[in-house]
Write a structure and sequence with these properties.
242 residues; Immunoglobulin-like; 4-stranded antiparallel sheet
């Protein structure tokens, strides 16, 4: 039996991930809106999106939520090439319920991997077999690993200052659930270019728009496992010239 009450909404709405990064002029990014039926019959309706200026949103014309069950609805986000970089809020509604998606629009990146020619260091290495330099040596079989510390960090010094647009991290099984990408012009004064609060491991692309970047630091805040942090590789890309 599926209990229901007359004053309850026909379906609840939430987002699998409340934030998404999208490249200006790039391919659509897909997120999932989650609907849960609250009535003893199937619920039909339309998921609607109120897109702000500079953001395009595509959703299905009609959605059916089976009786007493859950379904995911695809939401495709596109940022046209003339949209300014920044954060945009997209309210989504279904059956009177609302949830807001935050879209972070970033400029296109390109060019070579800047980290491959950079000098790497860290707050500490687990053993000499897992040095900081292993994350930028181009060898898929080597990796950097930290001691068992939430606050451990890895960093690199680029050959010259750039406008940094993307950092790509390839985690080993020991990854960070929360971390920041910090940047600096001189290696002494740091600023946070991006914050990741739901790290999922594997290959993660972190977007930003950080001018005058010479130093890049991956600053751990919370470990996802009982071990330290471990990175197979770190890649860095500059904002592309228009």
């Amino acid at each position: 039996l599926v209990p229901w009450f007359g004053d309850e909404p026909a379906a609840t709405l939430d987002l699998k991930h409340g934030e998404t990064d999208a490249e200006i002029g790039g391919e659509p990014q897909r997120v999932a809106a989650r609907l849960a039926g609250r009535r003893p019959v199937e619920v039909k309706g339309k998921l609607t999106a109120k897109a702000p200026k500079g953001i395009e949103v595509r959703v299905p014309k009609q959605t059916t939520v089976p009786r007493g069950s859950r379904t995911e609805v695809p939401v495709d986000i596109t940022v046209p090439k003339d949209t300014p970089a920044g954060e945009y809020e997209v309210p989504l509604t279904f059956g009177g319920q609302e949830s807001t998606l935050t879209v972070r629009a970033f400029p296109r990146t390109g060019g070579p991997d800047l980290a491959r020619t950079a000098k790497a260091s860290s707050s500490g290495d687990e053993t000499p077999d897992f040095p900081a330099s292993a994350a930028t040596d181009g060898d898929p079989e080597t990796r950097w690993s930290s001691p068992v510390e939430d606050g451990a960090w890895w960093q690199t010094e680029l050959e010259k200052p750039v406008r940094l647009g993307q950092v790509v991290l390839s985690w080993q099984d020991a990854y960070a659930s929360r971390y920041r990408v910090q940047v600096s012009a001189d290696g002494r004064v740091w600023r946070t270019a991006a914050t990741v609060t739901e790290g999922r491991g594997g290959r993660e692309s972190v977007r930003m728009d950080a001018k005058d970047t010479r130093f890049i630091r991956v600053q751990g805040d919370s470990r996802a496992t009982q071990y330290g942090y471990s990175l197979w590789s770190v890649e860095a890309y500059a904002v592309a010239d228009d």
